[in-house]
Amino acid sequence: MKQNSTHRLLVLAAVSAGLLSACGQQAKPEQSALVEIDKDPYPSTYQPLPAQATLITNVTVLDGKGGRLDKGAVLFKDGKIVQVGQSIAAPEGATVIDGEGKWVTPGIIDVHSHLGVYPTPETKSHSDGNEMTNPVTAQVWAEHSIWPQDPGFRRALAGGVTALQILPGSANLVGGRSVTVKNLPDRTIQDMKFPGAPYGLKMACGENPKRVYGDKGGPATRMGNVAGYRQAWADAQDYQEKWEKYRREHKEGKNPTPPKRDLRLETLAGVLDGEILVHMHCYRADDMGTMLDLMKEFDYQIASFQHAVESYKIADRLAENNVCSAMWADWWGFKMEAYDGIRENIPMVHKANACAIVHSDSDLGIQRLNQEAAKALGDGQRAGIDISRAEAWQWLSANPAKSLGIYDQTGSLEPGKNADLVLWSSDPFSTYAQAERVYIDGGLAFDRQDPASWPVQDFELGQPGEGDVK
């Protein structure tokens, strides 16, 4: 009897254990869905202007990539370049423009603009370009400061600018994200964003960060600047590894908890992942050399040095490392790190087979970037540097497009690319040349012959005087 009771108890225990085991299996939670971060939470809502087939004939064509065609023609349709040549038949219903004595080029792309973040009227309430609260503010985005009503956009359009990069200011080591826009002002910045263009990251070296933060706890020196970058990138690597571990464990069937989002490190990790392009405010050759070493230490790519007045000293290294230089034609000497600038900077960089760009950094200069390129071209020629007009136009279209990651879409007159182009009244390297017609995606965005079509922004209308009020 005792043996049977013992046997019964053992059987019950085994059954109970099995039931508990089965319950435990049923209670095991299902694997949660993989958490992915939306990398485009503010997508472009850009809509091109209505476009009709257009053939411009009998013009001098600079194709933007170094070629020139006299007595040439350009055909574009449905927003795209269809053909560039000398004998092109007009499709049925196409608009035909005889460009006798005129020139056609790709639209100008300005890689360094603060339109919208430092707009006109220039009041303190409109000054939204520098988040001077920490040396590293990678979490801020320039597009969240841009005022699309800035009349500077329309003035730049009248100067032949079809696209531009808008950056935060240069107070911080890491100033925040930049954005590339089509120069077709609309109600919101999302309506202007260049579809598919990568984000940029504005960084700054040299005098500005140490001047701004020297009395705020640092950095106060150039070595402090570099220490600040290195710590920021080291933190970004750690953040990157946490997310990689989370994804790896999720793939293995585990149920990991996703890391807490950090918007500052998220942007920096985007650079390390190759998704965001670094555009770095840097004047001196030694500073640029240090930044190239920093780039290699943390394995990311600098797309361009901005301002770069001493690029001529290290042009060979810039070419080797595939880094563009965005430069002024003749600004120099306004602070110590700009003191060793020379007028031949741009042509010297070009002749070293490095990527040379003419930029503005000015709401006035952006209106005549063709003339800035002409100054640099002339200074180079006077120094014995032989560069043709066709080659020099690369500084205004192809090279800027390459540095912004949009050369597959714009920057040169090639079949299949966006019809972003300018019809100039004469040689665009002339002081007297005017942009007569500016097309963006084949739509006529500016027509100098039709003043009634020129938009006027609210703040250009003025305020009525007290006596004018009825």
From TrEMBL:
Pfam families: Amidohydro_1 (PF01979)
Amidohydrolase-related domain span: 376-428
One GO MF term: hydrolase activity, acting on carbon-nitrogen (but not peptide) bonds, in cyclic amides
PROSITE patterns: PROKAR_LIPOPROTEIN
A GO CC term assigned to this protein in UniProt: cytosol
Cofactor(s) the record lists: Zn(2+)
Entry keywords, A to Z: Signal
Signal sequence, renumbered to the chain: 1-27
Superkingdom, natural source: Bacteria
Protein name: Amidohydrolase
